[in-house]
Amino acid sequence: AAVDARNVSVRLLAQRRQDGVTRVESFAPGDDIVFGNGDGVRLEAETSHSGYVYFINEAPTLDPATALPRYTVIFPKPGEGGGAVPVKANAVVRVPEHSWIEFFGTAGRETVWVVWSAKPVAELRDVETLVTPEQLGRITDPAKVESVRRFLASTLNVPRPARSTSTGQSTTHEFATSGDVIVFPLYFEHR
After folding, report:
1. Of residues 51 and 84, which shows the higher confidence score?
2. SS3 assignment, position 124
3. Which has the closest alpha carbon to 94: 169, 11, 24, 29?
4. In the predicted model, what is the mean pLDDT of residues 139-168?
5. How many CB atoms lie within 10 A of CB 23?
6. What angle is formed at CA 82 by the lines to CA 57 and CA 148, rounded to 5 degrees?
7. What is the rounded CA–CA span in Å between residue 102 and residue 109?
8. What is the mean pLDDT of residues 68-74?
9. What was the pLDDT predicted at 66?
10. For residues 144 and 127, is the Cβ–Cβ distance under 8 A?
11. DSSP conformation letters of 52-76
12. Rounded to whole angstroms, how far apart are CA atoms 143 and 106?
């Protein structure tokens, strides 16, 4: 039997500050938007099927101590029992829920990895509980960093949106596959 197409639709919002004025605007993956210190981004995702959603930030530079990527889990927040809770089909996930992911510090290209899976992802089970006020989602254990890096590299399967649609002032970008896992990067240039 054929598997229904699995879709993750993403809407990207930028909060930009310039000359004392704050503007919020929708933008597309691949747009040449450069974020400055204090600017922010918000991600909204909606999935066609129930499943597990993960957002993982990859910093623009490697960890100098380990020469590995620097990852931070920004979603999910741990549910009851400390693990990820499945997201229902057509539910909107807003990250962050009530604020903005702010750009600061080292300039370069930030990457936010978006993962949707029909089942919990084994390589991410150990790190999804790091979204706490103390840990702030940072993955610091080199073995866990390497496990996440291998997973993302081996499952990247949707490098660009299948289609984009605009309504009013927002644009939605749809990433699709027929498999049980969708993995794609979103890039943000920070100066």
Report:
1. 51
2. helix
3. 11
4. 81
5. 10
6. 35
7. 14
8. 92
9. 92
10. yes
11. EEEEEEE-SS--TTT-S--EEEEEP
12. 24
